[in-house]
Design a protein that fits this description.
heterodimer; A: Rna Polymerase Sigma Factor, Chain: A; 72% helix; B: mainly alpha; 0% strand
């Protein structure tokens, strides 16, 4: 069943991209509606996950361009994973938590195209080749976008770390 | 190798994607440039933070909405092509026409309107019939004059010949 297999993936991608759980729920529903109505067009020779990813990406970018997502605030970052880091010491754990929060908030500053490649590479752990196939982009463009996105995030972390020291 | 060049290669360096000599050049630059060294550390932290962002479970409400989509489609009574937005004006016009026709057929006001339209049509038809009868009479009259006019023309020709001789 498609919902069992892909709802979590699509929902999390929508959440990481938009930063809002409410927005992500609406987008997930719209993507599944599109998915069911486009199933007839699916070419069985193609990788289904890559095809779904293309559909999802197109929806995100279209939606972003249509609404410009006037909302500037992402949902408050809330992570209970702090307890899992306890073995590495409370100080390091706090830094990691702070980094996650900063990175989460800064994702919104990346352009939708760059944000998408960074999410696919560093959050979803896809290979550059997979990303290039699903976004229909040359491999070099994907690598360059990922690097630009990471640099933007790294500069924010570096500046914040500079303020602490 | 300058800072900008190193920044371009930072992701590839971090992921071990550079060839031996390029990696050595970047490594040498990083050892001598504290700013780029800090950027590399911040990029590592950003990747770690992205990879550690928690995954959310889709809410039961969302799942219920998603499970309902295929059922909706399965039990759809209307074929998909009839639901195209481009056909909406056609359906709207057809509905307006049906409302108008039923108003004429079933409401007392509609019947009065129908009678007045019928009367007007009848009067218009009688006028056309009368006009047609007048036109017929005029044609007959013209036919009776035809012979006289032709005879006169012959006499005029004969008179002209007599004068010439």
């Amino acid at each position: 069943m498609l919902v069992n297999a892909y709802s979590k993936k699509v929902f999390n991608m929508a959440y990481q991209f938009s930063g809002s759980a409410q927005e992500a729920e609406d987008m997930t529903q719209e993507i599944f509606l599109k998915l069911y109505s486009s199933l007839r067009k699916y070419d069985f020779a193609r990788n289904f996950t890559a095809w779904l990813l293309t559909l999802t990406k197109n929806h995100f970018i279209d939606e972003y361009r249509r609404t410009k997502w006037e909302k500037t605030q992402r949902d408050e970052f809330n992570d209970q994973a702090i307890a899992q880091d306890a073995f590495s010491g409370p100080e390091r754990s706090l830094v990691r938590e702070e980094n996650k929060k900063l990175v989460w908030e800064t994702l919104d500053r990346l352009s939708p195209e760059i944000r998408m490649t960074v999410i696919l590479r560093d959050i979803q752990g896809r290979t550059y080749e997979e990303i290039a196939e699903s976004l229909s982009l040359p491999l070099g463009t994907v690598k360059s976008r990922v690097n630009r996105g990471r640099l933007q995030l790294a500069r924010v972390l570096k500046d914040r770390q500079g303020e602490w020291t | 190798m300058n800072d900008a060049h190193v920044e371009e290669l930072l992701s590839a360096y971090l992921e071990g994607g550079l060839d031996g000599s390029q990696a050595a050049n970047v490594g040498r630059h990083l050892a001598s440039c504290p700013d780029c060294g800090l950027l590399l550390e911040a990029m590592k932290d950003a990747r770690e933070a992205l990879g550690a962002l928690p995954e959310l479970e889709p809410s039961t409400t969302l799942l219920r909405r998603l499970y309902a989509i295929p059922e909706k489609r399965r039990f759809r009574l209307v074929p998909d092509f009839l639901l195209r937005p481009s056909l909406q004006p056609v359906f709207a016009s057809a509905t307006a026409l049906l409302v108008f026709v039923s108003f004429l057929a079933f409401s007392p006001g509609g019947r009065t309107f129908q009678k007045s339209v019928n009367r007007r049509l009848h009067v218009g038809y009688s006028k056309v019939e009368r006009l047609y009868a007048k036109a017929g009479a005029l044609t007959d009259e013209m036919g009776s004059y035809k012979e006289t006019i032709l005879g006169s023309l012959k006499n005029v020709k004969l008179l002209k010949k007599g004068e010439e001789q």
